[in-house]
Amino acid sequence: MEYTTKDLHIRPFLPGDREAMAALLMDKIVAKTYMLPDFACAAEAEKMFDRLMELSARNDRFICAICLNGQCIGMVNDTEIKDDSIELGYAILPQYHNLGYCTQMLRGAIEYLHMHGFSKVLTAAFECNGASLRVMEKCGMQKQDYTDTVDYRGVTHTCVYYAASNKR
């Protein structure tokens, strides 16, 4: 599972992505809006990366590195696959926020997944995560009529859902 955008290469994880992904998985800014375990040390984050790399090699999963100029800057992953519908999560390192990379990645993912048989691509974000909500809107996704609540790190969050349906 691989695709490119204007600036990005989205591909399965490689061993060389370990350091960047450990940094992302342990980043306190990322952890505010991307649901992650609280890693006590880099070794725990690296163990999680090993599992993500293993899963990214499978054809029945969508788990990929987001790469800029050959460097891993983030990840996009399925959070649920049901029939011809897939829900995605994504995160990038904070130094790459607000540069349009999430929008490029998500537009490309929607196109790729529609071309590969998914009729519906879903995403969700905490209601307080305006940047992610704007990314979904810029990608032409439609806000759904339902929300969910989740307790994460001692705070109850409202999750807002967006969807892009294939227009066949």
Concise description?
By secondary structure, the protein is of the alpha+beta class.
Strand order of the largest sheet: 1-2-3-4-5-6-8-7
The ordered H/E elements are EEHHHEEEHEHEE
From the alpha-carbon coordinates, what is the Rg to the nearest angstrom? Answer: 15 Å
Question: In one word, what is the shape?
Answer: globular
State which percent range the strand residues make up: 35-45%
- Got a strand count? 8
Secondary-structure-based class equals alpha+beta
Number of helices: 5
Helix content: 25-40%
Report the span from N to C terminus.
Answer: 22 Å
The parts where pLDDT drops under 50 for at least 5 residues are none
Mean pLDDT: 94
Sheet with the most strands, sense and barrel status: 8 strands, mixed
Structure description:
The chain has five helices and eight strands, in the order ββαααβββαβαββ. With 168 residues, the protein is an alpha+beta fold. The protein has an eight-stranded mixed beta sheet with strand order 1-2-3-4-5-6-8-7, sandwiched between helices. Strand 3 and strand 4 form a beta hairpin. It is globular, with a radius of gyration of 15 Å.
Please supply descriptive tags for the structure shown above:
168 residues; alpha+beta; 8-stranded mixed β-sheet; 5 helices
